Protein backbone atom coordinates (compact mmCIF):
# COMPACT_ATOMS: atom_id res chain seq x y z
CA UNK A 1 0.00 0.00 0.00
CA UNK A 2 1.84 3.10 -1.24
CA UNK A 3 -0.03 5.74 0.71
CA UNK A 4 1.75 8.68 2.28
CA UNK A 5 0.26 10.56 5.21
CA UNK A 6 1.51 13.74 6.81
CA UNK A 7 0.05 15.88 9.59
CA UNK A 8 0.92 19.56 9.14
CA UNK A 9 0.11 22.81 10.91
CA UNK A 10 -1.03 25.64 8.66
CA UNK A 11 -2.39 29.15 9.21
CA UNK A 12 -6.15 29.50 8.91
CA UNK A 13 -6.94 30.72 5.41
CA UNK A 14 -9.95 31.00 3.15
CA UNK A 15 -11.35 28.01 1.28
CA UNK A 16 -10.23 29.61 -1.99
CA UNK A 17 -6.60 29.76 -0.83
CA UNK A 18 -6.55 26.40 0.89
CA UNK A 19 -6.28 24.23 -2.22
CA UNK A 20 -3.13 25.90 -3.56
CA UNK A 21 -1.57 26.07 -0.08
CA UNK A 22 -2.20 22.35 0.44
CA UNK A 23 -0.46 21.61 -2.87
CA UNK A 24 2.60 23.67 -1.90
CA UNK A 25 2.78 22.04 1.54
CA UNK A 26 2.44 18.55 0.07
CA UNK A 27 5.22 19.16 -2.45
CA UNK A 28 7.43 20.44 0.36
CA UNK A 29 6.83 17.79 3.00
CA UNK A 30 5.75 14.53 1.31
CA UNK A 31 8.21 12.03 -0.26
CA UNK A 32 6.23 11.56 -3.46
CA UNK A 33 5.87 13.26 -6.84
CA UNK A 34 2.61 15.13 -6.26
CA UNK A 35 2.02 15.66 -10.00
CA UNK A 36 1.73 11.89 -10.51
CA UNK A 37 -0.30 11.29 -7.34
CA UNK A 38 -3.82 11.71 -6.06
CA UNK A 39 -3.81 14.17 -3.16
CA UNK A 40 -6.47 14.85 -0.58
CA UNK A 41 -6.63 16.42 2.86
CA UNK A 42 -8.68 16.47 6.03
CA UNK A 43 -8.78 19.32 8.55
CA UNK A 44 -8.25 17.61 11.90
CA UNK A 45 -8.87 20.67 14.03
CA UNK A 46 -8.89 24.44 13.79
CA UNK A 47 -7.79 26.71 16.62
CA UNK A 48 -9.09 30.24 16.35
CA UNK A 49 -7.04 31.19 19.40
CA UNK A 50 -3.66 30.87 17.68
CA UNK A 51 -4.95 31.19 14.12
CA UNK A 52 -3.68 27.77 13.05
CA UNK A 53 -5.25 24.54 11.88
CA UNK A 54 -3.99 20.97 11.86
CA UNK A 55 -4.37 19.26 8.49
CA UNK A 56 -3.82 15.63 7.51
CA UNK A 57 -2.48 15.19 3.97
CA UNK A 58 -2.85 11.92 2.09
CA UNK A 59 -1.27 11.06 -1.25
CA UNK A 60 -0.87 7.93 -3.34
CA UNK A 61 0.57 7.27 -6.84
CA UNK A 62 -2.14 7.50 -9.48
CA UNK A 63 -1.01 4.25 -11.11
CA UNK A 64 -1.56 2.37 -7.84
CA UNK A 65 -5.02 3.81 -7.22
CA UNK A 66 -6.06 3.46 -10.86
CA UNK A 67 -5.12 -0.24 -10.78
CA UNK A 68 -7.50 -0.85 -7.88
CA UNK A 69 -10.25 1.15 -9.57
CA UNK A 70 -9.82 -0.87 -12.78
CA UNK A 71 -10.24 -4.14 -10.88
CA UNK A 72 -13.43 -2.89 -9.23
CA UNK A 73 -14.83 -1.69 -12.56
CA UNK A 74 -13.98 -5.01 -14.22
CA UNK A 75 -16.14 -6.64 -11.57
CA UNK A 76 -19.06 -4.54 -12.81
CA UNK A 77 -19.02 -2.14 -9.87
CA UNK A 78 -18.75 1.63 -9.75
CA UNK A 79 -16.30 2.88 -7.10
CA UNK A 80 -17.30 6.14 -5.44
CA UNK A 81 -14.47 6.53 -2.95
CA UNK A 82 -10.95 5.26 -2.30
CA UNK A 83 -9.28 5.56 1.07
CA UNK A 84 -6.09 4.35 2.77
CA UNK A 85 -6.43 0.99 4.48
CA UNK A 86 -5.24 2.52 7.75
CA UNK A 87 -8.24 4.87 7.79
CA UNK A 88 -10.58 1.88 7.53
CA UNK A 89 -8.70 0.07 10.29
CA UNK A 90 -8.96 3.08 12.60
CA UNK A 91 -12.68 3.45 11.90
CA UNK A 92 -13.40 -0.11 12.99
CA UNK A 93 -11.20 -0.29 16.10
CA UNK A 94 -11.70 3.19 17.58
CA UNK A 95 -15.05 3.27 19.35
CA UNK A 96 -17.20 6.40 19.08
CA UNK A 97 -16.78 7.31 22.74
CA UNK A 98 -12.97 7.17 22.34
CA UNK A 99 -12.70 9.21 19.14
CA UNK A 100 -11.19 12.23 20.91
CA UNK A 101 -8.68 10.13 22.88
CA UNK A 102 -5.08 9.81 21.68
CA UNK A 103 -4.14 6.20 20.97
CA UNK A 104 -1.70 4.01 19.06
CA UNK A 105 -3.15 1.24 16.90
CA UNK A 106 -0.85 -1.75 16.33
CA UNK A 107 -2.19 -3.74 13.37
CA UNK A 108 -0.31 -7.05 13.14
CA UNK A 109 -1.03 -8.40 9.68
CA UNK A 110 0.09 -11.25 7.44
CA UNK A 111 3.11 -9.45 5.97
CA UNK A 112 3.80 -6.43 8.20
CA UNK A 113 2.78 -4.53 11.29
CA UNK A 114 1.32 -1.05 10.92
CA UNK A 115 1.61 1.56 13.65
CA UNK A 116 -1.13 4.18 13.50
CA UNK A 117 -1.17 7.32 15.61
CA UNK A 118 -4.74 8.46 16.26
CA UNK A 119 -6.04 11.59 17.98
CA UNK A 120 -8.98 13.97 17.82
CA UNK A 121 -11.06 11.70 15.57
CA UNK A 122 -8.35 11.30 12.95
CA UNK A 123 -5.25 9.36 11.95
CA UNK A 124 -2.31 11.70 12.55
CA UNK A 125 0.69 9.64 11.46
CA UNK A 126 1.81 6.12 10.62
CA UNK A 127 4.76 3.78 10.78
CA UNK A 128 5.55 0.13 10.12
CA UNK A 129 7.55 -2.72 11.62
CA UNK A 130 8.98 -5.85 10.02
CA UNK A 131 6.90 -8.17 12.18
CA UNK A 132 4.15 -10.35 10.78
CA UNK A 133 2.47 -13.73 10.71
CA UNK A 134 4.61 -14.67 7.69
CA UNK A 135 7.80 -13.84 9.61
CA UNK A 136 6.78 -15.86 12.66
CA UNK A 137 5.75 -18.84 10.51
CA UNK A 138 9.12 -18.72 8.75
CA UNK A 139 11.02 -18.58 12.06
CA UNK A 140 8.96 -21.45 13.47
CA UNK A 141 9.61 -23.55 10.36
CA UNK A 142 13.36 -22.93 10.59
CA UNK A 143 13.53 -23.61 14.32
CA UNK A 144 11.44 -26.78 14.19
CA UNK A 145 12.91 -27.88 10.84
CA UNK A 146 9.47 -28.35 9.34
CA UNK A 147 7.81 -27.26 6.10
CA UNK A 148 6.35 -23.75 6.05
CA UNK A 149 2.93 -25.28 5.31
CA UNK A 150 3.15 -27.23 8.55
CA UNK A 151 4.22 -24.12 10.46
CA UNK A 152 1.14 -22.29 9.22
CA UNK A 153 -1.08 -24.99 10.75
CA UNK A 154 0.12 -24.19 14.28
CA UNK A 155 -2.76 -22.61 16.17
CA UNK A 156 -1.69 -19.33 17.76
CA UNK A 157 -4.08 -19.08 20.67
CA UNK A 158 -3.93 -18.66 24.44
CA UNK A 159 -2.97 -22.34 24.92
CA UNK A 160 0.01 -22.37 22.57
CA UNK A 161 2.68 -21.66 25.18
CA UNK A 162 1.46 -24.66 27.20
CA UNK A 163 1.68 -26.99 24.20
CA UNK A 164 4.28 -29.70 24.83
CA UNK A 165 5.28 -29.85 21.17
CA UNK A 166 5.42 -26.18 20.16
CA UNK A 167 5.17 -24.07 23.33
CA UNK A 168 8.84 -23.56 24.22
CA UNK A 169 9.80 -22.92 20.59
CA UNK A 170 7.02 -20.36 20.15
CA UNK A 171 8.21 -18.43 23.21
CA UNK A 172 11.79 -18.43 21.93
CA UNK A 173 10.84 -17.43 18.38
CA UNK A 174 8.72 -14.50 19.56
CA UNK A 175 11.18 -13.01 22.04
CA UNK A 176 13.47 -10.94 19.79
CA UNK A 177 10.87 -9.90 17.17
CA UNK A 178 8.54 -8.62 19.90
CA UNK A 179 11.40 -6.64 21.42
CA UNK A 180 11.81 -4.96 18.02
CA UNK A 181 8.08 -4.19 17.88
CA UNK A 182 8.18 -2.62 21.34
CA UNK A 183 11.23 -0.54 20.42
CA UNK A 184 9.57 0.71 17.22
CA UNK A 185 6.34 1.60 19.02
CA UNK A 186 8.36 3.69 21.49
CA UNK A 187 10.38 5.30 18.69
CA UNK A 188 7.26 6.21 16.73
CA UNK A 189 5.51 7.66 19.78
CA UNK A 190 8.61 9.79 20.49
CA UNK A 191 8.74 10.94 16.85
CA UNK A 192 5.05 11.82 16.77
CA UNK A 193 5.37 13.74 20.04
CA UNK A 194 8.26 15.75 18.59
CA UNK A 195 6.45 16.31 15.30
CA UNK A 196 3.26 17.50 16.99
CA UNK A 197 4.72 19.28 20.02
CA UNK A 198 3.69 22.69 18.71
CA UNK A 199 0.08 21.60 18.31
CA UNK A 200 -2.41 22.15 21.09
CA UNK A 201 -1.75 19.39 23.63
CA UNK A 202 0.78 17.59 21.39
CA UNK A 203 0.43 13.81 21.20
CA UNK A 204 0.17 11.80 24.40
CA UNK A 205 -1.39 8.35 23.81
CA UNK A 206 -3.64 7.10 26.58
CA UNK A 207 -3.72 3.52 25.32
CA UNK A 208 -2.52 1.05 22.70
CA UNK A 209 -5.03 -0.99 20.69
CA UNK A 210 -3.83 -4.15 18.95
CA UNK A 211 -5.65 -5.62 15.97
CA UNK A 212 -5.00 -7.92 13.03
CA UNK A 213 -4.62 -11.68 13.22
CA UNK A 214 -1.41 -11.28 15.23
CA UNK A 215 -3.35 -9.69 18.08
CA UNK A 216 -4.17 -13.24 19.20
CA UNK A 217 -0.54 -14.03 20.07
CA UNK A 218 -0.52 -15.34 23.67
CA UNK A 219 0.48 -12.86 26.43
CA UNK A 220 0.96 -10.07 23.84
CA UNK A 221 -1.28 -7.61 25.69
CA UNK A 222 0.54 -8.17 28.98
CA UNK A 223 4.01 -7.95 27.40
CA UNK A 224 3.27 -4.68 25.60
CA UNK A 225 1.59 -3.15 28.63
CA UNK A 226 4.55 -3.96 30.88
CA UNK A 227 7.07 -2.52 28.40
CA UNK A 228 5.12 0.58 27.30
CA UNK A 229 3.64 1.41 30.72
CA UNK A 230 0.30 2.46 29.25
CA UNK A 231 -2.95 0.45 28.97
CA UNK A 232 -3.03 -2.07 26.11
CA UNK A 233 -6.16 -3.80 24.84
CA UNK A 234 -7.32 -5.92 21.94
CA UNK A 235 -9.55 -4.23 19.38
CA UNK A 236 -13.23 -5.10 19.26
CA UNK A 237 -14.25 -4.24 15.69
CA UNK A 238 -17.58 -6.08 15.97
CA UNK A 239 -18.78 -3.51 18.50
CA UNK A 240 -18.72 -0.94 15.69
CA UNK A 241 -21.45 -2.99 13.97
CA UNK A 242 -23.39 -4.78 16.70
CA UNK A 243 -22.80 -2.50 19.67
CA UNK A 244 -22.66 -4.49 22.90
CA UNK A 245 -24.64 -7.34 21.32
CA UNK A 246 -21.61 -8.86 19.58
CA UNK A 247 -22.95 -12.35 20.27
CA UNK A 248 -25.34 -11.73 17.35
CA UNK A 249 -22.41 -11.77 14.95
CA UNK A 250 -21.83 -14.99 12.97
CA UNK A 251 -18.10 -14.32 13.38
CA UNK A 252 -16.21 -15.02 16.61
CA UNK A 253 -14.55 -12.01 18.20
CA UNK A 254 -10.99 -13.38 17.95
CA UNK A 255 -11.48 -13.97 14.21
CA UNK A 256 -12.85 -10.46 13.63
CA UNK A 257 -9.42 -9.03 14.50
CA UNK A 258 -8.19 -10.19 11.08
CA UNK A 259 -10.95 -8.25 9.30
CA UNK A 260 -10.65 -4.78 10.87
CA UNK A 261 -9.95 -3.09 7.51
CA UNK A 262 -12.90 -4.82 5.80
CA UNK A 263 -15.21 -3.92 8.67
CA UNK A 264 -14.02 -0.32 8.54
CA UNK A 265 -14.72 -0.11 4.80
CA UNK A 266 -18.17 -1.61 5.33
CA UNK A 267 -18.94 1.04 7.93
CA UNK A 268 -17.81 3.74 5.48
CA UNK A 269 -20.03 2.20 2.83
CA UNK A 270 -23.00 2.18 5.19
CA UNK A 271 -22.46 5.88 5.90
CA UNK A 272 -22.42 6.59 2.16
CA UNK A 273 -25.38 4.33 1.42
CA UNK A 274 -28.01 6.96 0.76
CA UNK A 275 -29.94 8.04 -2.35
CA UNK A 276 -28.21 11.43 -2.19
CA UNK A 277 -24.79 9.85 -2.75
CA UNK A 278 -25.88 7.91 -5.83
CA UNK A 279 -28.11 10.49 -7.49
CA UNK A 280 -25.54 11.25 -10.22
CA UNK A 281 -24.96 7.59 -11.12
CA UNK A 282 -26.88 5.75 -13.82
Automatic annotation (TrEMBL):
Pfam families in the record: PilM_2
TM ranges: none
PANTHER family the UniProt entry points to: CELL DIVISION PROTEIN FTSA-RELATED, ETHANOLAMINE UTILIZATION PROTEIN EUTJ
Native organism: Candidatus Spechtbacteria bacterium RIFCSPLOWO2_02_FULL_38_8
Superkingdom of the organism of origin: Bacteria
InterPro entries the UniProt entry points to: ATPase_NBD, FtsA/MreB, PilM
Protein's name in the database: SHS2 domain-containing protein
Residues in the signal sequence: none
Upper lineage: Bacteria, Candidatus Spechtiibacteriota
Gene3D superfamilies registered for this protein in UniProt: 3.30.1490.300, 3.30.420.40
Amino acid sequence: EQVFLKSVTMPQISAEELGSSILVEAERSMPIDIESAYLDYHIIKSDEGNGNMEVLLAASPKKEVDAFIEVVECAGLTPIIAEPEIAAIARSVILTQDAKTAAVIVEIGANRTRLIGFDNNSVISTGSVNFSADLINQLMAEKLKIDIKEAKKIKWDKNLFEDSKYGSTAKLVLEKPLDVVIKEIKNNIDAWQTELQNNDGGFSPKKVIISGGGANIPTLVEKLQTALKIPVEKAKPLISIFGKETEKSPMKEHLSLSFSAVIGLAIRGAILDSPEVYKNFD
